[in-house]
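User: Here's a chain of 385 residues. Predict its fold as tokens.
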Amino acid sequence: MRSGVAAVILATVLFPGAQASAEDPNLRETVQSVMRETGARGIAVAVVTDGEVVDVQAQGDRNAAGDPLTPDTVMYAASLTKAAFGYMVMQLVDEGVIDLDRSIADYLPRPLTDYGSDEIEDRYARYSDLAGDERWRMLTPRILLTHRSGFANFGFLEPDGKLKFHFDPGARYGYSGEGIILMQFVLEQGLGLDVGAEMQRRVFDRFGMTRTSMMWRPDFAENLADGWTLEGEVVPHDERSKTRAAGSMDTTIADMARLAAGVARGDGLSPAARAERVRAQAPITTRSQFPTLQPELPAGEQRPGLASGIGVIRFDGPQGPGVYKGGHDDFVGNTWVCVERGRRCVVILADDVRAEPGFPRIIRSVLGETGVPWSWEYGAMRMLP
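Assistant: Prediction complete.
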């Protein structure tokens, strides 16, 4: 791998005087073993201990030409965006700008069902599809941020392409990017906030994330990762032109290291808000994350301690409580795992979705056995031992 020397040099520049200037050779060997066994072309990892960055490394390729993946390579965060967005919203809660348990009807100038496709940008669903169903008034920021909206993952995935409720808001967990996007809509249409600007100011600038954005920036092109599918096909990096709270963030592993450390410390949040973010908000009762609207398991088969947090998943394990968030599409795989005890975290960004079966091995090599619900997150996928 040509990225090794570059990764060490760049880590020294990015985190001068920190332990991150010296990579953990055991972790490096673990990542290399995962790449060999899965065929993944590029994996980047950051490690946080006691709320401080202690290691940042990147291995493999960032594109088909074989240019090296480095800690400063811009990669697609996918649904890790949701966790960063949830953190930003909790700052608004702290400031009294928004109440987690207040109906979204109280924030919008008009009923949600008045907004049709001719009035809002194409990044939002056509909320007029919900006309005649007043359950939308039951929706609150807490319900939306904990994936209990009752929506499918996205409205356009419905057979008829129309947004609809599959269960009463708040009744149960059902992963929904659509719910996160509606939360963005409430902030923008109801409170007049620019979510992209708020994310930049409250999250990216706060943590020194200089190569992170909710939309494409031309300067990213100089060191940019493409992606690889399960079939090994290369997919060019998507230059996203719209802020989407459910998953438009571009970032680097160096920036994600800073974010994970700051979030572990609770920077920018009151102790109460930090605790609320990771608290078990509602039990998760399905066998796996996807498909999103699968039946609930009988009570005796449900995973104890598995619950939704604000923008994250809460789990109980042998080291006590922790939270994690996955990020996935057809050509990237990411995960962000934190154990509350010791404020310890690992972030993995892979520009190749084939890397995902090796995530448990990488996490285990750093944090030990954590209790992350891998089989719930990835379903029947065979994970590396």
